[in-house]
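Schema walk-through. Below, the input block comes first and the output block second. Nothing else is stored per chain. Lengths vary across the set, and this one has 82 residues.
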Amino acid sequence: MLAIRGIYDGKKIEPLEKIPFNDKRDVIITFIEELPEDNDIEEQINIINALTGCSKGKNLTKKLLESRKEDLKLEEAKFKKG
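--- output ---
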């Protein structure tokens, strides 16, 4: 079973996360909380869609791992001095 977040705007359900399959599936839709009246659902969906894939091709995972290796080297050097 897989659970993903989404928003229902009164007419349709918009997933907020990528659905990892394309074939037909039996689903259970559960409404867990009511959004406040001042909550603009369309604006939230537009923001999420605008940011989706914005860091594609920037190798952020690789840069994070390199940064962590550098941090580890600095910490090891600090303890060797003391």
